[in-house]
Amino acid sequence: MPRTQIRERPYNVLFLCTGNSARSIFGEAILNKIGAGKFIAYSAGSHPRGEINRYALNLLQRLDFPVSGLRSKSWDEFAQPGAPTMDFVLTVCDDAANEVCPAWPGQPITAHWGISDPAAVQGSAAEITAAFRAAFRSLQRRIDIFVNLPVAKLDRLVLQKRTQEIGRIADEKVP
To answer: To which H or E segment does residue 12 belong?
Structure first.
């Protein structure tokens, strides 16, 4: 009878975006909350803004997500010696998906989960807040599916395919 391997550590997941101020921060916060014990999430940007967008921060706080460890940082931090080895690297904005990424140690599974940039929305505070809520819901939906994948039971090619498919899930209009 074949033995199943027992994983000694959670899976490390890096969410990438250009500014690392909203979407990738959402990914980190959501996965660390709903994937606790199975996943450890991080976020970074190719050109980090250096601060979290206030609408993103306000939304996370209103939804009772821990925000104390969140910060806008460069993806270079995760390509340095001693950085956590990533099992998954997920881009959440089109700009980061098209940039040349650092070479990630360990050859992580990569996928693009493009989410519209709520920080680019112009209009009233209510319209901007609605855009941030939509981006959050879209990421939360994808992460809900991701955390329920039987990661340890899937071979690498199937896991790569399923992770990429999650990024192609169409956002549903939520009333």
So the answer is: strand 11-17
What is the residue type of 158? V
Q: How far is CA 22 from the centre of its chain?
A: 10
Q: Which two tokens stand for residue 79?
A: 């390509």
- Under 8 Å between Cβ of 23 and 138: no
> Residue 78 carries which side chain, given as an amino acid letter?
F
Q: What is the pTM of this model?
A: 0.89
Taking Cα atoms as reference points, which of 43, 6, 20 lies closest to residue 117?
A: 20
Radius of gyration for the alpha carbons in the chain, expressed in angstroms and rounded: 16
CATH code assigned to 11-167: 3.40.50.2300
Instruction: Provide the angle, in degrees to the nearest 10, between the axes of the packed helices 54-62 and 23-34.
Output: 20
Residue 124: both structure tokens together: 């009233």
pLDDT, tens digit, 9 for 90 and up, residues 19-71: 999 999 999 999 999 999 999 999 999 889 999 999 999 999 999 999 999 99
50 contacts 70 by C-beta, under 8 angstroms: no
pLDDT digits (tens, 9 = 90+) for 69-98: 999 999 989 888 889 999 999 999 866 555
